[in-house]
Amino acid sequence: MSIKLKINRDPQNLCPWFADRLSSALAECQALGFRVALFEGFRSTERQEALYAQGRTSRGKIITNARPGYSWHQYGLAADIAYLTPAGQWTWDGDFIRLSPIFIGQGLKWLGPGDAGHYECPASSFKTARSFLGKGGSLEEVWSDALKKADQKL
Which end of the chain is more exposed for a tag (fewer CB within 10 A), N or C? Predict the structure, then answer.
């Protein structure tokens, strides 16, 4: 499997503001006895393309409705969390709704039960984010703009 298609669990590839709050929320969950961790953070365009194709033009179940360029994962501003079994296997069988106030309390945006393990930075717009990168800008510029919208600072 290509490195561009691998799941990225490195919080250093996320916006620092977002990564700090995600880490704090995960630590609080773990202190309460919930075995949750970062399942996936940053996604390459190639990975987003492959995930979007799943269940449409490739085998598998549809797991995202976000086309490439329309997922905050690609900008380091979204993360998916999942539970870990005692054997260390990932699972989505767990009470995500009970965890949501912890993440929301850290200033993260939750999309609700339909995407229960997904959290985002309250960002600006995909049009703005794509514009920054299309002009040769950096993720740091996208993050700075997103955090202005969230009234936060890097």
Answer: N
Q: How far apart are CA 117 and CA 36, in angstroms?
A: 10
Nearest to residue 49, comparing CAs of 2, 116, 100?
2
Partnered with residue 82 across adjacent β-strands are 37
pLDDT confidence bin for 149, thresholds 50/70/90: confident
Average pLDDT, the chain: 92
Task: Classify 152 as helix, strand or coil.
Answer: coil
* 107-133 pLDDT per residue, tens: 999 999 999 999 999 877 888 898 888
C-alpha to C-alpha distance for 131 and 145, rounded to whole angstroms: 11
**Phi and psi at residue 134, to the nearest 5°:** -65, -25
Tell me if 80 sits within 8 A of 110, measured CB to CB.
Answer: no
DSSP one-letter string for 28-84: HHHHTT--EEEEE----HHHHHHHHHBTTTBSS-------TTS-GGGGT-EEEEEEE
